[in-house]
Amino acid sequence: MEGKKFLLIREIGMGLWNELHHVLAQLLVAEIVGRIPVVYWGKGSLYAPDENVNAFEEFFMPVSDLDIHALAQDKFLFYPERWNSGNFLTVPDFSRNEPAITTECLKIVRQTLLSATDTRMWIK
Question: Which residues of the chain have pLDDT under 50?
Answer without folding.
Answer: 120, 122-124
